[in-house]
Amino acid sequence: MCSRANGCLRSCTGLWGYNVGHSSQEQELSKILVETPVQDDTKTANDLSPIQAQRSWDRQAEDNVVDRLERIGLMAPRGEVDKVLETVVNNLEVTNNIDVDPEVRCRVMMTSTLESFTVGHTVVLSRGLIDVLPDEASLATMIAHELGHVVLGHRLDSSYAFFDQLLIDDKETFRHFGFARTPDEERAANTRAMQILNNSPYKNQLGNAGLFLAALTTREKEIPNLISPHLGDRVPVIGDLRSSMPVDQKQNPQAIVALPIGGRVKLDSWNDKLDLIKSKPVGTVAEREKMPFEVTPFMPYLMRYGTETSKPIAASAAAPSDPKTGEAAPGKP
User: Fold this and answer.
1) Do residues 113 and 228 lie in contact, with contact meaning Cβ atoms separated by under 8 Å?
2) Which residues does 258 contact at the CB level (< 8 Å), separation at least 6?
3) Cis peptide before 134 (omega within 30 of 0)
4) What is the largest CA-CA distance in the chain?
5) For a pLDDT cut of 90, what percent of the chain falls above it?
6) 140-151: per-residue pLDDT in tens?
7) What does the pLDDT read at residue 267?
8) Which of 81, 127, 105 lies closest to 262 in space, CA to CA?
9) Alpha carbon of 216 to those of 63, 99, 185, 207: distances in Å?
10) Residue 268 CB neighbours (<10 A)
11) DSSP secondary structure string, 219-254?
12) What pLDDT does 28 receive?
């Protein structure tokens, strides 16, 4: 649903979660499992060191929070978009020789506010932030900042490993959870992010990321609700990226510093699944068509449920059979 004022679209409300399937973690105590023959591995090294035990406990807290956010419909189920984000994480880790245990995962929050945060070793980006980022290098910049938090060991409150910490009403979610970092942690993550980016495949493509952050800073007074986070931090402003910005920003008139809301991701409102938009190239873009951080008309592609056409019935199968066919002639076996 969109609202219109003075000839311009000002807001857009999206509904989802009509048939959300519950995540599997809450069914652990209610499903029947048939155990296979047990293999005795007591002779192998299965004991956990204190560090490994602490990591396992933190991972339990992380899994509990992610599971809770997914069950109430705030976090999208794992899908295609998560794989794209994790590919970018892998590019950053490999080129910087980063070996993090447990592994870094990525998830997408369903809201349109521009925010990102980490839940333990899970990097979470909002759907709105992914929508407006102009290219992969800008996406890598956002992820590098959150990866900096992970590498620096900025932890999640481990008390979430207890399930009773998650027994809250859905309406209290935004007040109960908070994953924002302190200013000192944000500055440290910015510094670490620049180190990661300068050793990454995106080091020569950071100009657009700088233009994106500059455009966001310029328009922040016009879009206060869009940049106000619910659970995490605002989009990080990495000052060192200014040196990567092109001197003459008008040199390329086709440059797009930010996309409108809904520019990257489409939502299936029935099951909360997110997919990347696969649209045809639009060719030359006029200045008024760039619409950074704006809401555009919603034009859904409708199709009938169960569009698979039934196979035609063969004529031999459709023709009525002769009741006398196959009957034995009188007097013959």
Assistant:
1) yes
2) 132, 133, 134, 212, 215, 216, 292, 293
3) no
4) 104
5) 34
6) 999 999 999 999
7) 85
8) 127
9) 32, 33, 22, 14
10) 14
11) HTTT-TTTT--SSSBPPP--GGGGGGS-S-TTS-TT
12) 54
pLDDT at 316 over 50: no
**Contact assessment for residue 74 and residue 113, using Cβ atoms and an 8 Å cutoff:** no
Distance of CA 11 to the CA centre of its chain: 22
CA distance 201 to 214: 22
Of 60, 63, 79, the closest CA to residue 21 belongs to: 79
Residue 9: other Cβ atoms inside 10 A? 17
Exposed (0-12), middle (13-18) or buried (19+): which is 72, by Cβ within 10 Å?
A: middle
Exposure of 136 by Cβ count < 10 A (0-12 exposed, 13-18 middle, 19+ buried)?
A: middle
Tell me how far the alpha carbon of residue 171 is from its chain's centroid.
Answer: 22
Q: Encoding tokens for residue 255? A: 């440059």
Give the residue carrying structure tokens 């029935």: 270
For 51-120, give the secondary structure using H, E and C. HHHHHHHHHHHHHHHHHHHHHCCCECCCCHHHHHHHHHHHHHHHHCCCCCCCCCEEEEECCCCCCEEEEC
Residue carrying the six token digits 């009938």: 304
Confidence check: pLDDT of 7 > 60? no
Domain boundaries, the chain: 9-17+55-299
Burial 101-124 (b: 16+ CB within 10 A, else e): eeebbbbbbbbbbbbbbbbbbbbb
**Among 126, 127, 130, which residue's Cα sits nearest to residue 117?**
126
CA-CA distance, 297 to 2, in Å (whole number)?
7
pLDDT tens digit sequence for 66-121 = 999 998 889 999 999 999 999 999 999 999 999 998 999 999 999 989 999 999 99
Which tokens go with 325? Answer: 């066919």
Q: What is the pLDDT of residue 306?
A: 66
Measure the CA–CA gap between 20 and 208, rounded to whole angstroms: 37
